[in-house]
Amino acid sequence: MTRREALKLLLAAGITTPRAFAQAMERPEVLYDLPPFGDITLLYSTDLHAQLRPHYFMEPPNLLAPRALEGRPGYLTGEAALRYYGLQRGSLEAHLCTYVDFVALAERFGPLGGAAYVGALIKRQRAQAGVERTLVLDGGDTWTNSGLSLLTRGQAMVEWMNRVGFDHMVFHWEYTLGRERVEELVGALEARVVSFNIVDDLFGDPIYPPYAIHTIGGYALGVIGFSFPYVKVSHPEEFSQGLSFGVREHELQRYVDELRGMGVDAVVLLSHGGVPLDTALAARIRGLDLILSGHTHDFTPRPVRVGSTWLAAGGSAGKAVLRLDLKMRKGGIADLRLRTLPVATSVLEPDGELEHFLQEAYALHSGYLGQVLGTAQSLIYKRDSLYSTFDELAGRAIRAAYPEVEVAFSPGTRWGTTILPGQPITMEALLAFTSFTYPEVYVFKLKGERLHAVLEDVAANAFNPDPFYQQGGDMSRVYGISYELAVNAPTGQRVRSLEVGGQPLEPSREYVVAAYGGRLQRSGTPLERYTPRPVYDVIAEYIRQVKTVQIPPRPALRVLDQSYVVPAWGG
């Protein structure tokens, strides 16, 4: 990094005092030199989704909320997030946590994340805080959803975690590898899985220890694990055969009380429940001191306080590591300092051992993952409440492969990457959006009334005002359909004015539909002449044909009762 580049970075990161400038200009990495505080340090990473290389990931332009939850953490994006957390527009922290000025700031700060950089930051912070007083925690969604994780069936991720030195983790998408494979990988994992709410179907016994106790600096800290409660709903049930999940609120209270009865000073919930649900739990569970929240990919640059419980969320995609320094007292946390540390590749040096490991891991698959399929001429992004340019690309590709298809469904997953205008589109980048273990595109017939019902069901899930009934993911994406959405309408009345191909939806007519990454095909009549193919093969074939991908964001929908932001051309 040149001195001029370092100056720009430090200004944008908010380092403005003369002394800080003097130090930082000589050592830009001073951004990560934190003064010691308190008695226990927690380092927290979540929702990496196996993105092992530095990349770009744009935060959602829209996080539509039911009226009862508007303006709260979990539904803050763009300018609203800047205001709520007091972030300076144009700063590295603002770029990390919002989509505002995304393309310009991506070009200024460079790619974020990457397993060698995440690991280097964790190792450095652990050494800085003191190895003996530090726990390294993973919030789940770490083993799946990239090309390398798909090709190694999660093995590369476990080996990376072992080299970094994680202490505990919880689960969600990990179970899409299948229960047998998960248990194989747990056997190779040096971190201990804790999860009170993954239980045996037959007897109801926890599969993993519900909690762990650590004595640090004379204080006892209990860590309870909470895996995603709706695995059976969000993924085909065969992946987690023999297991049950669920919120299990009363059992959580029982474990908190059990730890308190054992004399534990503070209780931390390592959660993959998501910020809305975790906030609701914080208000209802007595005796929780801190929740480390994952699943919804939110950042909380400043800690959130719910009654007597702190809450901090760690974002996603390897963009940041949270450092929480806890000043303890007997029976609780006296004070807490949170730092959301960007994994900025323009400042950090990668860990040499991890870099070597990754080079070896990728070497076997570089020919496949490194294929250049085409070039992006506009911003290709995924995350949003309702629409993304990647999902429109998927719809175009499916229509090109199956001209008979009238409607194409894409799942409202939150993971992926972002491809800037002018960047090549590689197979690895495509797999960052599409690395399902059930990737097949199915073509089938579905009645119009069922199409409407499916969208209403998804809307009832996504916009339920009670977080206990939100079962994960954004709104499903549809190509070929236009509609209006009333977020706050009663259940069954949110989706209106549906049209297919510019014509009003006919309830009794059978439409030719394509879908991937879900179970919708089970509701329809399969068209036997179409053999299911992985969606990434379908999209790769299309990109090779068109060579350049230009998709200005133009969603074929209208939100009736809330503001909906369409990103400016180019982001």
Automatic annotation (TrEMBL):
Keywords attached to this entry: Hydrolase, Nucleotide-binding
CDD domains: MPP_SoxB_N
InterPro entries: 5'-Nucleotdase_C, 5'-Nucleotdase_C_sf, 5_nucleotidase/apyrase, Metallo-depent_PP-like, SoxB_N, Thiosulf_SoxB
Keyword GTP-binding included in the entry's annotation: no
Biological processes, Gene Ontology terms: nucleotide catabolic process
A cellular-component GO term for this protein: outer membrane-bounded periplasmic space
Residue span(s) of domain 5'-Nucleotidase C-terminal: 392-516
MF GO annotations: hydrolase activity; nucleotide binding
EC class name: hydrolase
Coiled-coil portions: none
Source superkingdom: Bacteria
Family: Belongs to the 5'-nucleotidase family.
Name of the featured protein: Mannosylglucosyl-3-phosphoglycerate phosphatase
Lineage: Bacteria, Thermotogati, Deinococcota, Deinococci, Thermales
